[in-house]
Amino acid sequence: MPDGQASRVGGDQLVASQFNCFVPSAFDSIVLMYNAASGAFAAVSVEEFEDIAALMADPGSAPAEEVSKLTGAGFLVPASRDERADVRSAYFEGRAAETGLNLTIAPTVSCNFACSYCFEEHPKRHFSDEDFQAVTAYVRENLDAGAPLSVTWFGGEPLAAFRQLKALDTALQAIADGRGSTYTQFMITNGSLLTEERIAYFASRPGFTGAQVTIDGPADIHDARRFTSAGKPSFEKIMRNLKAIAGRMAISLRINLDRQNVDRIPELIDLIIGEGIADWVSPYFGHVVDYTDECGDLASTMLTREEFAAAEIRLFNLMIRKGLRPGLDLPRPQAGSLCVGDAPGGAVISPGGLVFRCWNETALPEGEAYARIDDRGGLVRNGVKEERERFWKAYDPFTHAECADCTVQPLCRGGCPWEADKRPTDGPGHCTPLRYNLPDLLRLIHLRDSIDAIEPGGERPLPRQTV
At the fourth CATH level, which superfamily is domain 100-321? Predict the structure, then answer.
């Protein structure tokens, strides 16, 4: 091998990673390089990419410095490396190393909405004073000094029990402060009860990272599917509340897609711009799925995963071209748990001190809970649910055959455990849209970042767009 050149790491031959994704960008003469296992991303000229491709085909002919860059980014790996074993190890080792509490707390499972596709029943149950005592005792018993406390406020509609939420929030902050722990919180709300008092409260909380609010289209579409429990429309009220936020808190604007509304979303995009809320609202898309029997018969209106992935790209593209900046981040591989369900310190807590492992179970009755929290913070376990609890504790996201060959496995890791468990193991898990749209997503991210990098009034024109 010539001096200063390398084709091996530790004596091992180098090969291209199976998680590489190389695609032409939205601009002429630019190629995008991405690796799903490392998250590395680069935009290079066609000429540069041709040199890189030649180097990767024959690393022994290249300078050691150039080879080192590609190995450091994960584009080249030792031939003996089992990359999928690395993904598996990152999950299990990361999960085992997690500390702290990852709690989803529903101060009520009641809701003031009756959405057509909702996965929950909504019994009128709220946190009692006894529940408050039980949950605060549970956190005191289980939060180690210095370990993080993360809370997602859920429901039902959590703001329908704002008094209980506020009291518990204050108590949790005091516990975290006393333990030297960070305390962060996020809220899932339908947005209809975000009064000025409540906006001001959450905006004042140092660990409050934002809220998710859902709007499913222009008024006529949204109100036909996300109406109040009294059958009244909700669009105008939510939009007024979003405008009143005026940048004081971050909003993830969820737009649920199915066959009934997907073609009307461009109108909603124009409304977001026209109403002047784009600076603090970050839109993203949810896939309407029949998670539970409560969803009813959605078979005729659900988009397939492929259809949803295509619609997501089409609508993100439209947003970017209209000047919006949707919730569109470069996909990054993660280590550790997928959600609250498989998190070592995870729990979903509902009125009555009931403990579940998945959001889809939140409103179920006591007989379906894995445990109940007693007044001293201990868990009184439900023997009937022991097998299901063991499923979550021993969850393995790598059991589906098709996942073993998927190029986005480091990003998905089998997807939602609840949904993946429904699927036969000889097929795929609950596939992320990235399985179908990763190249297009990379193009959109590069397009957005290229537009943002150009100074207003600058002389350098955008390269001609080819898509």
Answer: Aldolase class I (3.20.20.70)
